[in-house]
Amino acid sequence: MATLPNPLPRLAADPSGRSLGLGLPLGRLIDETEDGPWHEPLLWHAEYTASSGAWTALGGRAARVGLLPVLVEVGGGQGGPEEWQLMPGEVSYPGDHDAAELLAEYWADAIEEPDDLDETIAPFDETWPDLAPAPASLPADPDRRAAETADALLDEGSWFKDPRLALVPARRSADIPAAIGWTGSLNYENDVARLCAVLRSWEDRFGIRVVALGFDRLVVSVAAPPATQEAAEAVAAEHFAFCPDNITQGHHETLREYAEHAVLGQRVWSFWWD
Length: 274
What we know:
Elements: H1 10-13, E1 27-30, E2 32-33, E3 36-37, E4 43-46, H2 54-63, E5 67-73, H3 99-110, H4 117-121, H5 142-156, E6 163-169, H6 176-180, H7 192-206, E7 208-213, E8 217-222, H8 229-242, H9 245-248, H10 255-263, E9 268-272
Parallel strand pairs: 5-7
Antiparallel strand pairs: 1-4, 2-3, 4-6, 5-6, 7-8, 8-9
Helix pairs in contact: 3-7, 3-8, 8-10
């Protein structure tokens, strides 16, 4: 996929990143993929557990040199990014895909699964309902909301066992999974750039930022969450197409219930693929 020049190779000779104006803590460069070492580092992550304030302290400076922050889970059962079977060589470019077309395709596939389809996807039917409208404005700065969300997740302590602050060379936050060849959605979508195209659309409409990645989990912050049940249901339809497991294998068994409890007014959206 098309990328900006990668600043990470400079960290091999300059681990602190002082030449980039960063002043990094002790960390490691990750270039391991499913097929062996990649030709350049895919990401850097700190050696120690992230704490509240780490995102703000480093994220803004890193973004100015083309490195975007994200939390990565290294304490899960599948280990950290060096063990995630990254596949950057199999990824296309997010900008080559249309989010509306993709979601319509995903919706058609997703509605084949539930036995009680009518109840699961109400108030919608089998016809793809189209993209949810964007709010009139963003009530919060997306990057500030991302930093606040990262701090809240770290303070809460229940989301991750051992989160580390990572830096990824990417044009925009929505592209982070594609930039590293993340395979957390492989059982559903084997080209993560297609999912990143949807993330780009959410970035444009709702001010999302990719805040955290685990082996098979993706967490985003939301600057403009839906403020009404109707708007939340429209977004929930997109979530169902994007990640059916959120509903078919989640805590909320219907789209309407999911919209009420996981979308309406929620500043964090989380996705998990079986």
